[in-house]
Amino acid sequence: MYGIFNDNFPPIMDGVALTTHNYAYWLHERGLDVRVITPYAPNAGAFIKSVPYKVNSFFSVPIPCRHPYRYGLPYLDLPFQHNWRKMDFELVHAHCPFTTGNLAYSAAQRQGIPMVATFHSKYRQDFEHNVKCKRVVDWMVRHIICFYEKADEVWIPLPAVEETLREYGYKGHVEVVENGNDFYTPKAQLEMMRKAMREELELIPDQTMLLFVGQHIWEKNIGFILESLALLQGKHFHLFMVGTGYAVRDIKSRIKALGLSDSVTLLGNIQDRERLKRIYAAADIFVFPSLYDTCGLVVREAAAMHTPSLMLENSTAATAIRDGVDGFISPDSPKEYARRVEYLMEHPELIEKVGAMASKTISRSWENVIEEVILRYRDIQESYKFKHAK
Q: What's this model's pTM, rounded to 2 decimal places?
């Protein structure tokens, strides 16, 4: 049995939670026994019942100021502990270095099996949001690196993510294993889907639809998006934002203060993946100026629906695209970002051309990715057996 461990899981709809689900789903589709280990989340029951693989959750509490995220406390959950001891894994894969990551490591040690750990996030920025003491943040980062140093293999979703790991102090070997996406629509259906959703969203004909999908937190550079669009007052655009997070209330206040109330709509958290896919299809430009993200699964989702992303120079996530070929890159300035949006609004044929290329070069299916993952898992297992047979 393969164990997939992560502290977030749907209905929390962030990139790592969706990655966890897709790993489990496609491993199961390939006939492998797989189990997800994750903290309990309210309203998760319907999603868990809908998936074909097994999910074991344990007691958790809300993380203050980080809604909807939760902190798992597995050692206070006696029924989970009873079942946990009976789980017989052949390999464990940790998608975070915290509670479930430590569970994965304890299982690996107890059962004498390999552990893979994927580095997904810029944890330092998360720590700095909640902890104001630099020494404490440095200690927390060192603790994170200690976890990855215990893994038998460390994976990253993009080559550029290695730079962040090295900055944190990790000196070991890394392997690049890309993330996939679960969106695909034949081009013949794409235009029908786009037209229907734009009508549902009540967009004016020829109005440029901008889209942001992700956590509504300041680390995602949402303030930058709003400041940029405030420079385009009177232009023919509308921004739709999908997601939730601790900053929703403040974001609404900022929208009002900048005079963008008629130009920005918050759609909230959308768990229906088919509906989200149609929203991606309806959009013209995916605005994603995040300096926080290491990979940006949402950029790949947008690309799958022929929607190109506008990103920032020197961002890790932007290393996946080529400016003017399969995406757009702007200098790190609200004024320059606004100018790029305005230029693209005036050149819809360029948006269409680049979006079509993005669907070919950026979007990779999970079905394809998981074939590579299985081969890597088996190589790791063989190497582990050989190493420990001596």
A: 0.91
